[in-house]
Design a protein that fits this description.
With about 220 residues, the protein is an alpha/beta fold. It is built from seven helices and nine strands; from the N terminus they run H-H-H-E-E-H-E-H-E-H-E-E-H-E-E-E. The chain has one domain: Vaccinia Virus protein VP39 (Rossmann fold, 3-Layer(aba) Sandwich), CATH 3.40.50.150. The structure holds S-adenosyl-L-homocysteine.
């Protein structure tokens, strides 16, 4: 990777943010998020045959029929969480661990769940090798969340759920944000921002049309 590759990726994200500003309600993302996007080497998270495309602003295959999201979507979803350095964040859908690495630079602790054992193990090894240390990985069904470490300051789901899982709302702290694509598999879905206020009231807003691999609901 070269500095020019990363600079181009960052410029592409910035222009797509501007292009979608009417939908996402802002024309620039949090500079802390953009700094994290600049520092995580995306080429280390994608397989050899697609490495040359690692800094293009598009999704890429990561094996096992799964994909790593487009950098713009990773940046936008991270921004929507409004992460503070003291936060503990739950991620559903570890995949390659790329989004996990971005989160780990912005918060105190990341807990991440993946249902495909091989992907989870590879991501854990990769994150350790790249020295991201504030991350706990597990293999499981994200529809159920990870009750052991709940409640979380923020929850991010990186696969399309058929509905907003009740368990994730329960495991969200008052004042916390849940970012989740909702809709039918392989169709256009809606990226939702679910806010729980200090009184525990839920507010749901649809932000953008997106396409994600499905969040599968099978016992593990
Ligand atoms: N955030 C990832 C990309 C995730 S792709 C990255 O940056 O690379 C979505 C991932 O969600 C896939 O790896 C898929 O196996 C996983 N997944 C699908 N259903 C799940 C479920 N119910 N629980 C946990 N993970 C799930």
């Amino acid at each position: 990777m070269t500095n020019d590759d990363i600079k181009r990726m960052i410029a592409d994200i910035e222009s797509e943010v501007k292009f979608t500003r009417n939908m996402i309600g802002k024309s620039a993302l949090d500079p802390r998020v953009m700094k994290a996007m600049e520092s995580v080497p995306r080429d280390k998270f994608v397989p050899g045959d697609v490495k040359s495309a690692a800094f293009y602003n598009g999704p890429l295959p990561i094996g096992d029929g799964q994909t790593i999201s487009q950098p713009y979507i990773v940046a936008l979803m991270t921004d929507m969480l409004s992460i503070e350095p003291s936060h503990r964040i739950l991620e559903i859908g570890t995949g390659s661990g790329y989004q996990t690495a971005i989160l780990s630079l912005l918060c105190k602790q990341v807990y991440t769940i993946e249902c495909i054992a091989a992907l989870s193990k590879n991501a854990a090894a990769r994150l350790k090798e790249l020295k991201y240390s504030n991350i706990e990985t597990t293999i499981g069904n994200g529809y159920k969340g990870w009750p052991e470490h709940a409640p979380y300051d923020g929850i991010i789901v990186t696969a399309a759920a058929s509905h907003i899982p009740e368990a994730l709302i329960e495991q969200l702290k008052p004042g916390g944000n849940l970012v989740i694509p909702v809709g039918e598999a392989y169709m256009s879905q809606e990226l939702m921002l679910v806010k729980k206020d200090e009184q525990g009231e839920i507010d749901i807003k649809s932000v953008l049309g997106v396409v994600f691999v499905p969040l599968v609901d099978e016992p593990i």
